[in-house]
């Protein structure tokens, strides 16, 4: 796997603990990584469950795992990109708090790892359009992306 995909940005998240608990800023409007605000949503993945693959033509996705751990994979499907067909893999969550910014045209997905349900917070640059979704999908075991999610035989998520 290549170490980078053109346009993908990573922001190390700072956890600030005190006697009451902790605070972690995820994305600020004055961050270099910030483009614009669309919406904020939370989704989960049970341990071993894969939610993949999809990409967007218009929006940039910004996401992190705030509880548990996830394996995140990215694949550059942009034919005009200098990193065309590059793959990236991250382990994101409580043990590695990072924000991943994924530009349009880059497939992405994630798998819940560990024993706990993983909570994934996403801050895309555009709100979800229910009438015309900017979402294009492939199954997790597609032959178009050379990546193995490690699913048990006969088990398929998406």
Automatic annotation (TrEMBL):
Superkingdom assignment: Archaea
Name of the protein in question: dTDP-4-dehydrorhamnose 3,5-epimerase family protein
Organism: Methanoculleus nereidis
């Amino acid at each position: 796997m290549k170490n980078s995909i053109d346009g993908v940005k990573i922001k190390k998240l700072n956890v600030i603990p005190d006697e009451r608990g902790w605070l972690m800023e995820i994305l600020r409007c004055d961050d270099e990584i910030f483009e614009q605000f669309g919406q904020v949503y939370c989704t989960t993945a049970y341990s071993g469950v894969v939610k993949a693959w999809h990409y967007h033509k218009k929006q940039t996705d910004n996401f992190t795992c705030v509880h548990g751990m996830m394996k995140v994979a990215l694949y550059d499907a942009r034919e005009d990109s200098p990193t065309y067909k590059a793959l990236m893999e991250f382990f994101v969550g409580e043990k590695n708090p990072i924000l991943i910014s994924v530009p349009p045209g880059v497939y992405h997905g994630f798998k819940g790892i560990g024993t706990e349900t993983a909570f994934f917070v996403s801050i895309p640059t555009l709100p979800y359009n229910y009438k015309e979704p900017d979402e294009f999908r492939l199954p997790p075991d597609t032959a178009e992306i050379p990546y193995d999610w490690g699913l048990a035989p006969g088990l398929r998520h998406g």
